[in-house]
Amino acid sequence: MAETLQRDEIVVRDIVETARVLFKQSGFKKTTMGDIARSLGKAKSSLYYYYPSKEDIFEAVLHAEMDELLDQIVSLRKKFNSYASYADAGIGDIFPAEKIAHAKVLRCTELASGILYNRGNGQFSFAPLPLPAQFSKVYGAAFDDFDGDGKKDILVSGNFFPYRTQLGRCDASLGMLLKGPGPGSQAGSPAQPGVPPLFQPVDPAVSGMYIGGDVRAMVELKTGAGKKLLVIAKNDDAVQENDDFFREGTVVEGTVSQDPDEPAADSAADAEANREQS
């Protein structure tokens, strides 16, 4: 019985969150029960077991929206003490006109993770990291020669699990080594003024550098014996420690294409064979 209740709660939550997205995209009138069912991968008849009509689903979406707002702004609970009072409220009913007039407006024009290069005289230039390093958040980065080729690389890590259900977890990163070929617009080319170094992404299956989980921080330390150590902190999880990410004399050759549809250049087996030979 308890398992059935839990399963029903999950289905109801999925219906509400899916309908919320569709209502925002197409509007209430244009969204049908069939649209919601198709997005869920369910038969339309199964929705009627939980909600008699589209209007009932819309009401459930409003309830969820109000609950989220009042969780963030507790003072509004006195103003909206019922779902009906919130259903017809506009932005002017929620916030006084004077607060809206003096509200600070923030705009974001760059969402990519990247590098700020100090060009001197207070001037900086921004270069985004390669596409495979953009699949999730970046909470930790280390700059060192990880593959032993004499050139500095970047190792990035990070995820974020605790988003609300309708947004989903940000969990696509397993860590990413960005192999540094040196300055220049092309690997091995001489340095050019104003051109940032080109870093090549290396798939974790090739580099062997796996940093999964809800990663929130990463630092590079040196032990008393002079050995390098990476310490990775994860939310609600054990700390990950790695000293085998620093490979003196072992060059990682495999890279991952900027096009997600193209395979990595080398396989994990090839990388393992290279390590055994070195």
Which H/E pattern describes the elements? HHHHHHHEEEEEEHEEEH
How much of the polypeptide forms β-strand, as a percent range?
A: 15-25%
How would you describe the shape?
elongated
Structural class: alpha+beta
Q: Over the alpha carbons, how many angstroms does the gyration radius reach?
A: 25 Å
Q: What's the count of strands?
A: 9
- Tally of helical segments: 9
| Mean pLDDT across all amino acids | 82
Lateral arrangement of strands in the main beta sheet: 3-4-5-6
* End-to-end gap: 59 Å
Largest sheet: 4 strands, antiparallel
- The poorly predicted ranges are 184-191, 260-278
Helix content: 25-40%
Descriptive notes:
With 278 residues, the protein is an alpha+beta fold. The chain contains nine helices and nine strands. Strands 3-4-5-6 form a four-stranded antiparallel β-sheet. The protein has a three-stranded antiparallel β-sheet with strand order 7-8-9, with no helix packed on it. Strand 8 (228-234) and strand 9 (240-242) form a beta hairpin. It starts with a helix and ends with a helix.
Short overview:
This protein has 278 residues and is of the alpha+beta class.
